[in-house]
Amino acid sequence: MSKKISILIVDDEDSVRDSLFSWFIEDGYKVDCAEDAKTALTKLESENYDIILADIKMPGMDGLEMLRRIKSLKNDSIVIVMTAFATVDTAVQALKDGAFDYITKPFDPDDLSHLIRNASKQISLTKENETLKEKVITLQNVEDIIGKSEAMRQVLHQVQSVAQSNSSVIISGESGTGKELIAKAIHSNSSRKYFPMISVHCGALTESLLESELFGHEKGAFTGAMYNRKGRFEMADSGTIFLDEIATVSPKMQVELLRVLESKTFMRVGGNKEISSDFRVICATNRNLKLMVDEGTFREDLYYRLNVVNIHVPPLRERSGDIPLLTEYFIKKYCTSMNKPPIPIDETVVKRLEEFDFPGNIRELENMIERAIVIGNGKKISLKDLPLEKNIISTSAESLDEQEKSHITLILHKYDWNISRSAKALGVDRVTLYNKIKKYNLKSINN
Amino acid sequence: MNPRDITVISFGYFDNNFLTKVVENVRHQYTCNVILREGHFDLSDFYDAARRQYDANRILLEVEKNFSADTCKTIGLFNVDLFIPIFTYIFGQAYLGGRSGIASLFRLSNERYGIAADNDLLIERFSKEIIHELGHNFNLIHCHVPDCVMISGSYVEDIDQKTASFCASCRSKLMM
Questions:
Q1: Does the ipTM exceed 0.90?
Q2: A409-435 as b/e, with b when 16 or more CB fall inside 10 Å?
């Protein structure tokens, strides 16, 4: 164990304190003593002890009262009570009040060693648990959401402010912008983070299947319902339910949803028992729900019930400044998963990626990088590994010269800098092409 | 006398040959002068009638006050059942980084557990217990290496499991 476990001994008898002090010091623990409960509580205000070993019978405040006070100050303290006058009642009371264990004086040296070893194990498990929880949250917040652009900063700021509330949230944005990731970030920053986040892809299910998925069903409710099954609302109790593609939900289901969201109670399909569940709703859509309300295809009351907070995730083309970061992240992610060393990427390629339209947003960029790592030579990601020919935004190339330069570059890349084939495609001779390359100072990225 | 030297004082009856062998084992581990002598005080003053045992804390204090010196480490040997208020019994105890300690033979013999006597085993157990308590005087705390003499043990079986030697780490601390 890297850090010494600290123990506070609370007993009014000098001989007990001294004996335990020597015993624990010899075992390498950090030990402190208090002669009564009052002194112990004062010490606990300024110092953190991992284990408190307290006598029950003491003048003034007794050990049980002290235990209750310690627990109200610091609920995760490990308190072991000891007494020379053991009764079942006091033992039960001590354990009810949160004591870790109970030991009767005089005790077998081995019993005390076992007790302290168990308590130490509990302390290290608790600490490990806390570290892992922090790690999970850090992973969720820091590693998965990539973006330093102003647009993403605003989104993350909204996530921070909305996370602590219980309000319903609609996350809007084009497909592939990372709406589910934003929902996860809201969930993991909320007080519901230690409970599940249940995702339902509404667009992937028919009306009857969605009903059964959301509310669950009783055995025999329909053909194939061989067992009782919990619904997603029930599973999300104390946590969050994420309804993706909410715009695809049928009018009948919209009514059902509205009722559940208002009452937080529902019945399983084929059941007659009302079930209540405490969940938070986060929805996502790539459609304009307000427009759908105006057109009459989405219920207005449901829209207002869901749209307490709206977070719009910008498409990748509106935050092209994040592309280098995202590219780097995906290269690292896929190289790690494919057990390859990180593959470098040329700056020219990154620049071309920044100019790309990305109609499929981050998902498209991610797939593009994954493909480049799979099919590339493994030494460097070059333009030929990426399907970028189409869809390059050429708005910056306004002059004829710029247009010409851009087109020649595109053709050269397409034919892997084969001058004869490129010249043929451009309808010029090789000399003309060489002159143009010289004029525009074009260079192959593989050189 | 060197401060690292050891004085072993026997209180009560011990066979001379037995003690000579024990002292030899101690000398072998500490590689220093180990002097064996006899001491006397009335143990009945330290007897707790309710527990029918002897108060180790007070005995240790007596050894510390009247038999030990700054010039060496002193260990008192007894053949009575020792206790401290919190524990049902102890084999011995010592001041960590101090100058004195005590050890008892009482709970180390096979006969106490209904097994045939074994004098060699008894010498080995008592030697280990004395080396262990003296280790505390030399500022060593309990060790986690299974065969190191400084590992904590509550039963005779635990004493039998370990060796009379120090592990490399405890040995290096001892040399400092």
A1: no
A2: bbbbbebebeeeebbeebeeeeeebee
